[in-house]
Design a protein that fits this description.
There is one protein chain. Helix 4 (about 95-115) packs across helix 10 (about 310-320). A 9-stranded antiparallel β-sheet has the order 25-26-27-28-37-34-33-30-31. It is of the alpha+beta class and about 800 residues long. It starts with a strand and ends in an 8-residue tail after the last strand. The radius of gyration is 28 Å and the shape is globular.
Amino acid sequence: MKEKKLYMIGNAHLDPVWLWNWQEGFQEAKATFQSALDRMDEDPDFVFTCSSAAFYEWIEKNNPAMFARIKKRVEEGRWELAGGWWIQPDCNIPSGESFVRQGLYGQRYFLEKFGKTAVTGYNVDSFGHNGNLPQILKKSGLDNYVFMRPMPLEKGLPGRTFWWESMDGSRVMTYRIPYEYCSWGKDLEKYTDRLKCELLDGENELMMFYGVGNHGGGPTRENIRSIHALNAREDMPVMEMDTTASFFEKVRHNGREYPVHIGDLQHHASGCYSVLSRVKRENRRAEDELVRAEMWSSIAAQVEGQPYPEDFRRAWKGVLFNQFHDILAGTSIPSAYEDASYLYGQAMAIGQENVNYAIQAISWDINIGEDTTMRPIVVFNSHAWEGMMAVDLEVRGLTNDNFKLTDAAGNVIPAQRIQSEATVNGQSRLLFAAKLPSMGYEVFRLYLNVEDAPRFAPVSVSEDGLENGRFRLRFDNCTGYVSSLYDKQEELEVLRRAGGRLKVIEDRHDTWAHNVFKFDHLLGEMQLVYKKVLEEGPVRSSVRVKYKYNQSYVVQDFRMYQALDFVEVKVSVDWREHCTQLKISYPVNLNFRRPTYEIPYGYIEKSANGEEEPGQSWFDFTGEHFQKGVMYGLAIANDAKYSYNMDIDEMNLTVLKNSVFAHHDPKQLEPDTEYRFVDDGLQEFTYILLPHAGSWKEAKVTRHAREINVRPLTVIETYHKGSQPQKRSFLSLDSDHIQISAMKESEDKDGVIVRAYETGKRPGKAVLRADFMNREAELSFAPCEIKTVKLPYDHSLPVVEVNLLEREEH
């Protein structure tokens, strides 16, 4: 056994929030770090590993003397900075940009405070890991990765140590922690005996993680004495207190060929993709608000001299902290979510304030001539592509249909009044659809009380269904579900059976749903209460359908636009059913089906076996149409949900999982006790049905999904002189499969960062045009590549490619 080696990784798994609030986690971090420093003073061989830059910032601000001692130990090589991220997040639900920011702020903090960055990604307790993490890790300076879940009973892998590869070809050397990431007893012999079995299976080096964890603590004196005693025995492998970096350096150069795994690492705790709708919706909104605000702030700083805000980093840190795996997963105590809402609210308020400064600086500089018969409406498109998008806003004085709306070229376009958010006289919402310039704006003119008000044919609607030039949708009169969705252009029926069905599923599992992979025990389907025409107009018509199950209600407003090739459904839920899930189901009329889910900055194909899968904002079934024999598909995108499953031919969107807060196996619920349930009450979200000929890639599903999550912004302006034209695009990328996802000022404040990613698994070139900086560059993309470039403020310097830490790599 002395030819074998166990790298003893002293650590303390710190959950800053879980069955306690962050204030208690704050104290536990200090206590744990103090304990680790004390063990170092006592034993010169002791080495400590800890991740999560957020904890170090707490110590820096609250106990500078302790922070100075930690810096000294880092310099000595006895305190390993691991992870390189702000926190150990849920590794499925955050957006691609959030994962980038985890590394950007975490690694740059380490570099600024300690003079070095981490080399090992470290998410030992996260409940699954999306398949694009190797690329994000690698481009953040993290060559290695450590995780524990899913465990071997949940996911078979080719070995403890393997290369993990993402679809772009990026690889990180990865290690799955055996058994546990912490130890609970004083003597470590039972833990080492487990690993001796694996060493006899052919492994020469393994890592063993030890130390009290979850609520902090770390290695104890007894742990360290046990290591010394066990290491002295001939029947034990060499046991050396060391770092993860040392282990990975050894295995990289030991002459062995390690297997390669391509794809995600799932499933553990599948309930976490859906439980607690509120925190997941707040996360999506905060992420989108900040990205949009950064993009417009970058433009306004260059075009109008509007100062670039200094508070984006603070906002992002709050969002990143809330993405901790026990917060965003929905598995913490109720009061923890009040704290989370404060941080999300702070981020959204910062984003909203900053985007308002930016767009109003631009709109005030548009040359708008005086015309007392009209109101100028400036509409901003926050996406770096041109597209037809729905726009709606409150307008005071819009009380009848005697109005007209013109675009920047003077063309009259269809518009309609819809119900105001206010219940007052003299106000309505204005709705129209317009083709907006890429990352730009256009001025529309609204004329009220005109004698020659234009009239346009409405979208056909009745209680039985909706129809526009592309689709015909019909409802079943008995159930209220969609009996037919017919594609008039392709002349085919999209659905195999009734769609939009609201399925109530029994779920008596704990909050995480440990060891459960499918949720398919059907209690029943919601029953029709009524259906009625809600809107009829030239832009959009809609039918409201209300359903009931026991004391719970769901309203689905099915909306069809004249100018948009999808069906939009606004969902309002009032839920009272305990220990249940609610799913919306659409069966597709397709053979040879390929299920695809969006993952952070990418996509993945999975099986249609009914297992719950995490995804970002869309999922898709594409195959051969049964009757027509052509390739066809249905994509469903939404603005708040992350949990889906495909079961043979059915697409299921999981609306909610109404479990008891922080209920962990094996605790049994007591029949006479009243509990708090995570999704009791009201919630709203929107999804779209996007039927498409060919594949989802040709249908630009990724763009449509972004458009329903980030809608156009509007400013009702006044008359003033200005230097800006009536319509302008500030940023574009001439590619149908490469998408700009973020733009911000560089952390070094010497230029603008633009990030884009390839969406369709094919190489390509694209010309980036940043009109607001008079910059242009041709970029080359490998399949599924995330690329980041810097546009220096100094125009004598070229546009350069940088990594996710905004550093050039030579």
